[in-house]
């Protein structure tokens, strides 16, 4: 008996292909979690600094959805992992014919079979096309425990929302080899600076520094409530992947975060699909321990009107961007050197064989973890949960 079975229209199948393309920017594998009311596709990048998830609603996204509670799980979930390219190539092979070809896709049916007494488990994709043409793909998957990133939105007092189309236009200016993106607000303007640090081996320059700065007026945002003079640094690659998918849906991108060196979450929704991206950040602010709301800029657009066109500047030099020169070197390099799996003990503690473990139980209140050279505030942490049942199951945190 199939543990999961659902059907997609041609448009929904195209959306799934776009989701897999976006998740492919984060990881080679995609995690699949089936529940009675939703299906979740997610991915975690190799450095554990970025987590992406797409929640597809049972009633509004699928034309048909059937789920049999997993017999081996208390919560009844079904979770597995599958190779992204193998699954995305199935949809790509037929979606190219949607412009009126004789074999254009009309319907997609997916069945997940789990036989505990068989060696292989099957992920069966059936593409039903015009004129009775049917093509069936049988893929294998791996049963695995899927973790979700826990993000405390109540502690994320910095918020901004802007059209993904506008962000896509700005991100096109970023150099292809740029590695990091700094977001900095001051005097009613937000500056997005993509940059690559200079790398030398003796006297030989292995990588030339490059930075591109795009300045945007806060009135170009649909909503803006954020602390000024705070550097929020994330991966350019992750940012471009998120913006590209949001722009394809024609939605506004919403960001929430508390302060530098804490998680940031991008989110948007469209047609029964909820998209969330949780990224680890580095950076600095005037008062990282307790950002003052009196120094925040607040703006909410009442209409669709926009201010004058934003300005852009690009330069190549051996210096870092001016907005980053006063930032501690350790903070600038943290994103590259540490992912979500790197932790630093803040206070002495008795030796423990699992002191370097990624997952730290919250019950051990005497263990405190802090980012490099920063004082950790109470509240906002990036955590992982294998069950999504925050009351009856243990939760874990990781910095």
UniProtKB/TrEMBL annotation:
- Is Ligase among the key words of this record? no
Q: What Gene Ontology cellular component terms go with this record? A: checkpoint clamp complex
Q: Where is the composition biased (Polar residues)?
A: 320-336
Q: Which residues cross the membrane?
A: none
**Gene Ontology biological process terms from the UniProt entry:** cellular response to ionizing radiation; DNA repair; DNA replication checkpoint signaling; mitotic intra-S DNA damage checkpoint signaling
Region listing for Disordered, in residue ranges:
297-399
Task: State the UniProt keywords alphabetically.
Answer: DNA damage
State whether keyword Isomerase applies: no
Which superkingdom? Eukaryota
Family label: Belongs to the rad9 family.
Question: So what does this one do?
Answer: Acts in DNA repair and mutagenesis. Involved in promoting resistance to ionizing radiation and UV light, as well as regulating cell cycle progression after irradiation.
Name the PANTHER family on file: CELL CYCLE CHECKPOINT CONTROL PROTEIN, DNA REPAIR PROTEIN RAD9
UniProt protein name: DNA repair protein rad9
Species this chain originates from: Viridothelium virens (Speckled blister lichen)
